[in-house]
Amino acid sequence: MPNLSLSTPTGDINLHYHIATPISPSSPDIVANLPSIIFIHGEYACQEVFEAQFSDPRLRNRFNLISIDLRGCGASGGVVSKSHTPAIAANDLHLFLEKLKIPGVHVFSLSIGGHVALEWAHAHPEDVLSLTLCSPLSPEEPEDVKAGRLEVFDFWHDSSAHEGGTPDCEADLDEELISPMVRGCQQMMFSEHANPLTEAVTMTALTHASINWAGSPEILVSCRTICIDWFIERKVFNVEFYAKIKCPITIIHCEEDIGYPLRYAQEFEALLREAGHTEVLLCQVPGPHFANVVYPQLINPILSDRVLSVATPNAGDREEALSEGSEGGHNALLTTPFKEALAQYGYHSDSDEWDSE
C-alpha cells in the first residue's frame, strides 16, 4: 500500500494514497498529459468511499484518479492535535502534490472534505484547476445536526474509552454501544439507502476508526477534533475569502440530505457570485449526503463534465492508455485499489454494470 512521508509545519506525517489510471488500478505515477482528479473524503469515511468513482470507466478511461486518506484517517498517520484544522489538512495536500511533482489537479470533495478543498484552493490557487463539491456544509453547523454528531461521538467515547487499542491494532469496542452509533452514522451518510457497497464502506471505516480513534483518552481527543470540532468550530468563509479562489466551481446538492437543505447550497452559490465567480454551477441530484456511493451514475457525469470543461484530455495519450490497460466493456465496472478491502465485508463489483445513460 503506497504511503508518502512528509515533513509539515505541524509534524511528520504519512499519507496513504492510491493513483488509478486508464492503464492500472494502482499505479506509482500519473499518466502524463491526462487531467488528474484528487478525491477528498468526508467525515467517518476514508478513501474507500470513492469506490463507485474509481470503478467507473467513464472517469478512469479519461483521467488520473488520486485518493488520499487525510491525516489521522484511514491508513494515514500523523499527529492530530486539538489545534488541527481543515486548513492544516489542505496544506498537507499541497505538500503531497509538491513531493510527487504532480501539476495542478481537479478536486472532488465530499461533505467536510469540501471545507478542506476550499481552504486548499484559497491558499494555493495554482494547485486547484476546478472544484466539484458534493454535499458541502452550511456556513455554521445546524443545531440538530450538531446534536446528532455529539450523540454519535458520545456512543463512540463510551464504547472505546477504556484501554485496549495500540497503534495499528484494533481496539476492543463495546458492541452493544457500537451498533446504535453505526446506525446513526449510516442514517447521516446514506439515509435509508442500503446496499452491499454502503455496508462495506461502513465496515471498512469502522475498522480504521477502531485503530485510529479508540483505545485511550488521548486518542479520543484526535477523534473529537476531526469528528466534532471540525464541524462545530469551522471557519465561516466570507466574500473576500472566496474571491481568492480562481477556479470554476460545481456545487452538488443531494435532495435527501437530512442535515443541509437546499437553501444552504443556494446561499453558497450566491456568495460565490458576489465574490466575482462566473463559472459556478449548482446541480441538484436525488440521494443522501453521500450520494456518490448510491447514485454514482448521476454524480460521476457532473464531475466529468466539470473537468472536461476546463481541460480536454490529450486524445493520443488517452487512446494509448486504453489500448494498454483498460478493462472490460464500456459499462463494465473496473477493478479499483479498494477491491480487497471492500471484499472483506462482502462487496464484489466483478459482475456489476451501470446503465449507459
From TrEMBL:
Q: Which domain of life is it from?
A: Eukaryota
Q: Which Gene3D superfamilies match?
A: alpha/beta hydrolase
Q: Name one Pfam family in it.
A: Abhydrolase_1
Which InterPro entries does the record associate with it? Answer: AB_hydrolase_1, AB_hydrolase_fold, AB_hydrolase_sf
Residues in AB hydrolase-1 domain copies: 35-150
Name this polypeptide is given: AB hydrolase-1 domain-containing protein
Q: Which organism is it from?
A: Tricholomella constricta
